[in-house]
Amino acid sequence: MFHVNPPVIGITIGDPAGIGPEIVVRALAHEAVRASGSAVVIGDGWVLERAMNVTGTRLEFGTGGHARLVDLANVDHRLQWGKIQSTAGAAAGQFIERAVQDALAGRIDALATAPLNKEALWRAGYRHLGHTEMLADLTRTSDPLTMFQVRGLRIFFLTRHLSLREALDQIRREKIAAILPRIDAELHRLGIERPRVAVAALNPHAGEGGALGREDLEEIAPAVADARSRGLTVDGPVPADAVFAQALDGRYDAVLSLYHDQGHIAAKTLDFHGAVSVTLGLPFVRTSVDHGTAFDIAGKGLARADSMIAAILAAGDLVRRIYVTQTPRSSRAERSDPQR
After folding, report:
1. pLDDT at residue 333 in the model
2. b/e string for 272-308 if b means 16 or more Cβ within 10 A?
3. Is the same domain home to 258 and 160?
4. Domain range holding 95?
């Protein structure tokens, strides 16, 4: 089942001891979110009530309300704000598991997620490095792509949750050459007919011909040449201190960042509260906030919902883009007409 008009967005509330529940209720009260589509919250009713109390937000759940609620009622009422707790990690993991079930069953079109706490998940027995790895495991997706989206800037990542030392070991010609066609394909799915992609350089000034490191010369440039030989429009290595600004100005449709902080710093400096993380390659669209559980302010009513709002709106927009790109015109007409 695919809803599209309007899309049905599933929203998980994240770690119930963090700011996730607060930013979810604030986002659901936002006029743009209410106008964008239909929302289904996967969480715990008591936790949401507590979040509404600290934020001064009132929501109605159910038909005609702000959203429908899938209440797992799985959170211990002794839960403490702002603390790592195995019970919170267990509940957060169960929210994700149920959301994936609903997405695979077609009950929701996309998933927008509030932040998890990795240590709480690990204490609960989960062994995933993060949200993306958990979703990949639950959907049996071998290697999903992470894309940051902020103010028209799109950033993909060659490596994600690795130490810098480990990430450097992964910057190899074969790995870069393998990911570039996948990025091109995903950009096509988003409706970009002729994607232009830049690969960020690793070393200052792209290595200055080898004087400042040979990785750009020996690994990145040959991978870019491989991609071009396959008909892709790719530049690189482009010095990292310029490439993100160039993409923002419209020269490129996306940038391939080589390691976690290279791309995260660019996105979050541009707009910390508006950046959205997108997971591509799953059987459904998934977006997320680009920040953590912020235990230091959890339960104080201080958390801003900007990124959660942006994640929900982006989820709906991506569903529409992918749907329009992949669905034949006749089928689109049939699906969009409720009388058929």
Report:
1. 34
2. ebbbbbbbbbbebbbbbbbbebbbebbbeeebbbbbb
3. yes
4. 1-144+281-340
pTM of the model: 0.87
DSSP string, 143-179: SPEEEEEETTEEEEES--SS-HHHHHHH--HHHHHHH
Q: 84 and 113 in contact (C-beta within 8 Å)?
A: no
- Note whether 294 and 193 are within 8 A (CB): no
Question: In the 8-state DSSP scheme, what is residue 196?
Answer: E
In a shared domain, residues 69 and 168: no
Which residue is it, tokens 């883009």? 321
Q: Among 1-10, 123-132, 143-152, 293-302, name the most confident range.
A: 293-302
Alpha-carbon Rg for the chain in angstroms: 21
What angle in degrees, to the nearest 10, is found between the helix axes of 20-28 and 306-326? 70
CB burial of residue 142 (10 Å; 0-12, 13-18, 19+): exposed
Last residue of a domain, one of 272, 296, 311: 272
Domain boundary among 221, 240, 272: 272
**CA distance linking residue 80 with residue 114, whole number of Å:** 18
% of the chain beyond a pLDDT of 90: 81
Q: Mind giving me the DSSP string for 33-54?
A: HHHH-EEEEEE-HHHHHHHHHH
> Tens of pLDDT along 121-157?
999 999 887 888 999 999 999 889 999 999 989 999 9
Separation of alpha carbons 19 and 40, rounded Å: 19
